[in-house]
Amino acid sequence: MESAIPAHLQTARTRHRRVGDDYAPPYPSFVARHKPSVTRVVMAYFGLQTRGAPSTAAEQALIRLASEFSAADGPTHWDRASYIDEAGFTNLVTVAYWDDRQKFDRWFPTMRERWTGEQRTNNGFGTFIEALYPSVEGYETLFSSLGRPEGVAVLADGMSGEVLEHAYWGGMRDRIPLSQTSEMAASGSACAIRDGTRIRIIPHDNICLIRSGQDWGDTEATERKMYLDDVEPVLREGMDFLRDQGRSIGCYANRYMTVLGPDGVATEKSYGMSWWKSLSALERWAESHPTHVRIFGAAMKYLSALGPAAKLRLYHEVTVARADEQLFEYAECHPQTGMLNAVQTVEMA
Questions:
Q1: Strand pairing partners for 326?
Q2: For residue range 34-65, what is the model confidence (pLDDT) as tens digits?
Q3: Which residues contact 143 (CB under 8 A, 6 or more apart)?
Q4: In terms of Cα–Cα distance, which of 149, 157, 140 is closest to 38?
Q5: Cα–Cα distance, 193 to 213 (Å, whole number)
Q6: Which CA distances in Å does 275 have to 128, 243, 247?
Q7: C-alpha to C-alpha distance for 264 and 80, rounded to whole angstroms
Q8: What secondary structure letter does DSSP report for 285?
Q9: DSSP symbol at 205
Q10: Which pLDDT tens digit goes with each residue over 4-20?
Q11: What cofactor does this protein call for (predicted)?
């Protein structure tokens, strides 16, 4: 049994785990392992927002974005997903990952100006960028099975063996290396500034991002029916609550996304991604809110019934980022989009 925190990031603890070394998790889980030389990653979400089906101009913008990803210093991995938001807009979100900040810094400025800046043309759709640049001490991953990494884990050197810190409340925090010495508490407040055609969010310290995914592509008839009939509707109910009422509990925005294949067709994968005021706010929802209690109960009933035979794949990545590790920009998006939800008014630059 391994610690989720790799040996080179372990340090003398001033804050202790919720479980002792004799804890034995009831089922196996795994985490991504980067090479020790990787000290920082980039998670950049490029969003396109449109009323109804994407126009030809919107489709062309997505094609250009994919082409830019193939250029020098482009991301090591990217994927695309879609969802219909609370205002009825279609959002196509492409998330790209780098494990070399210098490559990202060389690649990003030109694309930034084309996506949300002065080189952007008004083609009747909104665009946004939501990016984090956390140190490897500031985030964690968790996978229910091996062999198919998702998200930032695609960049990793490999996966761990079975890890200790999971299947208990607090495991998420315990897997983040910073938790050994830091509370990672939020401080300050976000504000919005209009900068030309875009609105920039000036964030506060220690905002939290979670991407939590499901892949039912390998399931067969009985298991697939159990997931789609008994688990997915409960998950969707919780995702809708966070989307519509999340601000009351510290969730600035939530998207329940359907992953798209290279051909743009929906796959049998989904993920929820949400912005939280703090890791503590996310933990409180996970541990005690009725919507998540129902999700957890439905998932446990499903997994208990199937045991090791379950072919559903689950994963997540959770990041806590300092204010100087964040970037949020929105151009012609409706005011409930992403981190625009975190502020009340927009100031002029």
A1: 132
A2: 999 999 999 999 999 999 888 899 999 999 99
A3: 29, 30, 31, 32, 149, 150, 153, 159, 313, 314, 315
A4: 157
A5: 32
A6: 15, 10, 10
A7: 8
A8: H
A9: B
A10: 999 999 999 999 999 98
A11: heme b
Q: What is the DSSP string of 83-124?
A: EE-TTS-EEEEEEEEES-HHHHHHHHHHHHHHHTSTT----S
The pLDDT, as a whole number, for residue 349 is: 57
Cα–chain center distance at 269: 14
φ/ψ (deg, to 5) at 326: -135, 150
Q: Is 316 a catalytic residue?
A: yes
Which is the catalytic residue, given 34, 204, 316, 334? Answer: 316
| Beta-strand relationship, 326-331 and 266-276 | unpaired
What is the Cα–Cα distance from 212 to 146, expressed in whole angstroms?
16
Give the tokens for residue 263.
Answer: 């051909």
Give me the phi and psi of 151, to 5 degrees please.
60, -140
Chain length of the chain: 349
| Separation between Cα atoms, residue 286 and residue 322, nearest integer Å | 22
Residue 302 burial (10 A CB sphere; 0-12, 13-18, 19+)? middle
* C-alpha torsion sign, points 55, 116, 134, 205: negative
Burial class from Cβ neighbours inside 10 Å (0-12, 13-18, 19+) for residue 296 reads middle
**Residue 99 vs residues 64, 65, 164, 274: alpha-carbon distances, Å:** 22, 19, 26, 22
Asked if residue 136 lies in contact with residue 41, where contact means CB atoms within 8 angstroms, the answer is yes
